[in-house]
Amino acid sequence: MIKLHDVSVSFGERTVLNSLSLDLTERRIAIIGANGSGKSTFARLLNGLALPTSGEVLVHGLNTRKKGRDVRRKVGFVFQNPDNQIVMPVVEEDLAFGMKNLGFSKDDIATKTDEVLARYNMSDLREHPAHLLSGGQKQLLAISGVLVMAPDIVVMDEPTTLLDLRNKRRIARAVAALDQMVITVTHDLDLITDYDRVIAIDEGRIFADGTPPDVIPAYEKLMS
Ligand SMILES: Nc1ncnc2c1ncn2[C@@H]1O[C@H](COP(=O)(O)OP(=O)(O)OP(=O)(O)O)[C@@H](O)[C@H]1O
Description:
By secondary structure, this protein is an alpha/beta fold. The chain has helices spanning 39-45, 68-74, 91-101, 106-119, 135-147, 165-176, 212-223, and strands at 2-11, 14-24, 28-33, 54-59, 62-63, 75-78, 153-157, 181-185, 197-202, 205-210. Helix content is 34%, strand content 27%. β1 (2-11) and β2 form a beta hairpin. α3 (91-101) crosses α4 and α3 runs parallel beside α5 (135-147). It starts with a strand and ends with a helix. GO terms for molecular function: ATP binding.
């Protein structure tokens, strides 16, 4: 459960998020909104990558301002651009990197690497140079690298922007199969039709908040 209590974020004079109070408890939550409306900033608040200018964000009761490290163990973050996430030259090394940092044993790392590569049909890419993967494969590697660390909550910032239809569907299936709570920032309205809750942000405020059939048409109207 993530709680935002009267959260505002400003950059200089500009208020990007304005006095948001929300309880995020649903299993699948989407954040939608126009370019520059504050969605990425919102996502970054959820694992302490960004801090509120005022107000507070609590993840399972932990304040992101004071317990950033603990919060980041609980909340995995998938960046919009996988090149920002992939840090090691070879696929299996990249998957191991985050687990090593969290102190997983060698055996555990090997087992989890096998599992995740098999799950996403990437076993033959184990020793492949990460920078030579296609955009979709990189996106899958970036997501896999977060999932192997077994976070309680997964936040994804536009996970499908670089992908073709096949890989979009692959990601959608991968997300649907996760046990964890998933919060997805996206412009891809098809991806979120079966989500539990959609929050539309407009100019830093909540414009609509509810189920996909309630929120998506209202958002489409706002954008037309
Ligand atoms: N670190 C920062 N410093 C200054 N301004 C910032 C910073 N991060 C974001 N902004 C500004 O905040 C506003 C909201 O940005 P944000 O990335 O949250 O929007 P977004 O809804 O995710 O947009 P998009 O759909 O284009 O990715 C933008 O005007 C952006 O320029």
